[in-house]
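fold description:
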Amino acid sequence: MLKFKYFLLIFLSPLVSIGQSNSGSSIEETDILIQKGISLLNQDLNQSDSLSNIAYYNAIALENDSLIAKSHSFMAYVAYYKGDYKTSIEYYNKALGSDYFKNKLDRRQALLNNLGVNYEFQNNYAEAKEAYQGSLRIAEELGDSLSIYQSYINIGFLNSILYNFRDAEKYLLSALDFFHRQNSKTYEALCLRNLANLYSLEKREEESIKYYILAINKILEFGNEFDALETQIDFNWTLLNLERYTLVKVNQDKIRSIIDKGKASPPITANFHLIEGFYFLDSEKDLKKAEIALNKAFILFKNQGNLRQLSQVIEGRMILYALRGDFTQHRELVSEFLEQLRVTYLNSSTDEIKTLEDIHQLNIQALLIDQLNSKIAFNRTLIIVGIILLILSSGFIFLISRKYMRLNQRNEKTNLKNIELIELIKLIKSSQKNGDSGIKLLAEEVQEEYSMQGSMDENLDQKINAFEKEYDELLFDKINKMFIEGQLFLKADLKVADLAEELFVSEKEISRAISSMTGKRFSSYINEFRIQKAKELLASQHKILIKEVGFKSGFSSQPQFQRKFKELSGMTPEQFRHVSEYQKTNGNS
């Protein structure tokens, strides 16, 4: 089944430097209100919203154009955090239309970046592109490297939404390299999160998980709870697509505890319910819970005007009705979903929208055929049972055989149709992936207008390898900590799969991290810990049996313990005990 799942990255440049002194205490107090309100955005959104309104009415009463412009930008910021992107766009445009921000290019550049983000959520990619272009032009005019690479992050993510993956990767890796060299941890984490989202869309699953883990660790260390929660939501989408349902449930339970306390913003809450809906559909097959979750998400996204996610909710409800067998409601939603596609891809050509519709219709037919095949398989089972029961009555044999042959013929025709549809889906998707036709959206236009310098093609592998090494070091540190502090090696049946499950990574990544950092295989690495533990027991407990030492050190058998001890220490456990006792006695004499 086709799921249009987009992973939403929010990048907001610093809004403005507030608190400039003007004559009159009321003006200064209003400036302080704005400054305080911005500082509360990640802590108490309702209070921040109240302060934005107070500041605005104060500015109107004072008839101060500069304060009104600042208030508009503050109100735009608050509306964005509330998920009201349409209102946020209105306030940003009012602020940008003021003389105050026309004359302050650095602040205007930041507002244009923020405006572009809001246009993305409204699926207005043409306006988003124009805003980002304006922001980048000002940054280049000012010669501000920081602002240039901030714009690169937004431009890179816009390219990923438009499925222009190569250009997206160029921009994001270039920004990542810059912020890494500048030791700017917050922006570095933001780049890692963007790349994780990109690789998830591109179906580069292992790289996506790797970059999510790096991003989450950096955000937890250097960022704030709001960014960490959003990244965790994005990560959960990827895990859901990879069908790692156990991890999805664990993460959803953690996020739910925050949402239940009312500490999450409306966009995060809406995305949480959307993931919950698809989780109940795909994993637990609990259609009642799925419907409740999807309805909650629908209301929230509709209130926010978030068209991109709204189409996902509609698709989820279509799948729900199909699985329930309610094909009347399913057909009613099909037209609504296709209309939503037209709105979502407003900037696409007629041919591109038609391609999207064709792919969707094929997937719907494939879903219905799957349902039909399930019923046929069930009917076939009933027929077989019936044959066994009725075989004793020869008068019914001919009738049952005849019905079975007809059903079998229908089944063969259905299967042939299913194969044709699946091959057609593969052909269209392959065509899209190779760039021959299909969903091009604005990719060619964006690629032409945002083409990078030739130097951006160089050293991409080196940059990726550098962060792969950082990932291996981070993963190895966690493994080492589990062994040293948690003494995980004492578990006799410990496997690579157990570590992979504990750390939310693949077995291949565990083995590579250990090999990269120690040059050893997993078995050699864990046996070193076990032999060291055995030596400690032999040296400190004189009455303990050799056999007990092996089991208490994590070995599953005595022969294995003896063999590995001799191999790694050059002597048997008995010889080591004698040497240890001799050294203690000799040292005490």
Observations:
- The longest helix spans residues 350-390.
- The radius of gyration is 31 Å.
- The chain is about 80% helix and 0% strand.
- Confidence is low (pLDDT under 50) at residues 1-25, 346-350, 435-458.
